[in-house]
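Thread: "does anyone have the structure for this chain?"

Original post by V.I.:
We have the sequence but no experimental structure in hand. Need at least a predicted one for the grant figures.
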Amino acid sequence: MIKSNDSGLIRKYPLLHTVIKGEGRYSITGIISYTTDGIVVQLCGGEKPHIGTVVLSQPRPSLANDENTSATTSILNLLNHKDDIAAKPVAEMLAKTLNQVVVVTAGIHVDNAAEHDIEILQSNIQQVADELLKWASSVNKA
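Reply from O.Q.:
Generated one for you, tokens below.
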């Protein structure tokens, strides 16, 4: 789809961007698709990238203070998957910050992950999320 904004800038949607952080079993890939009315993110990595969860976040006025933006979030997990732990914060951050509906799919698996492994993965997920937000913010402003 081709769309122009108020400044006359013409863009072809969806816009795509990929970020990779970490190496080997700690590698996390984030792929973002920015459409004309919403954002789709895929987070995957570890030793077995897969689909373990789908998270949908819709921005809304905060219930505590309607001057702030919050998000209503729905989660669909596959049985025995905990990938929502990675996907939910990313979906909510993007939805609240960009005021866009966001869907995040996630699947990150490391065999026999110890606490130290999980900490490294969480750090890499956060780095990916921060870079995706930075990129999407620049698109949102243009």
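V.I.: this helps a lot. Strands lie at 2-4, 10-12, 15-21, 28-35, 38-46, 53-61, 69-77, 102-109.
O.Q.: and The first helix runs from residue 84 to 98.
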